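Appendix C. Worked example: Protein AmbD
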Amino acid sequence: MSSTSPASPLDDVEFQPGRPPTLRTEIPADAPGWAAEHREALRALVAEHGCVLIRGLGLRDVAGARAVFERLSTGLMTEREAFAPRRTYAEGVYSSAQWPPNQPMCMHHELSYTLEVPGLMLFACLTAPDKGGATGVADASTVLEQLPTEVTDRFEREGWLLTRSYNDEIGSSLTEAFGTEDRGAVERYCRANAIEFDWQPDGTLRTRQRRSAVLRHPVTGRRCWFNQIAFLNEWTLAPEVREYLIEVYGADGLPFNTRFGGGDPIGEDVVQLLNKVYETHTAREPWQAGDLMLVDNIRTAHSREPFQGSREVLVAMADPVRLSDCSPTFEVTAR
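Step 2, the predicted output written as structure tokens:
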């Protein structure tokens, strides 16, 4: 008697230019059980290609999505230092960052400015928008190769600097970012995570943190353009938004901004170049309700395109990786 092993999801993956690798499956009666059964094959897909979109899983609610997230990851993370507020649906399960739907969230690697970053991002679409709203992806090694060396060499030498000014109007508030409003606890977190901080006379907080712009993938060793230099820079903001924020908060009080690691401003031309290279190498596929996407957060940048209508995409960050394990171009020392 011979037995036939079940077909692997690897056998049915579609590869099309300009689209992420896509696996189409029939809606299983038990999605978490399906995820557990195919966990290793799906993670192998992500390891090989940087991401995979799973279509037909039929995810409909938070409980089902969280159960799938847990079976595909080694552990869900609690977000710290968020740049924009999120709704918490369950422990480790969040809404997409609250960002104006008519404005894009440009390519970035989640929490690239922290010392411990998600190795894996998981997205589950419960409600697809009427138009737009795709989560685009771009290979970080390809982006690095396509950028001019005169740009990448400077960032490799200096790293990049993120400056933040916390307020209750734009971006994450102090409590949303640090999980507490206690000054002592915030200061201890900053010291432990190599973040310079300065309390302003009005009680608000400003911070600076310098990080490497290029890392090596901890498993493959591939060099990756890993940062949020363009996305969190003032020149990526819509012109009217930038002008308003500077008028209200001053040039040094923007909710977030990025600079060269030595502190020099980054020109608009550099930011436009980064975003242009990202766009050239973006793969995208419109969401359908029930979809699941897995993204290697170090190898693959992701974005969120403008949309119309209701959009509900759940997000989980998982499989934490220490930046110190990714061959940073300079050492970051916590105090």
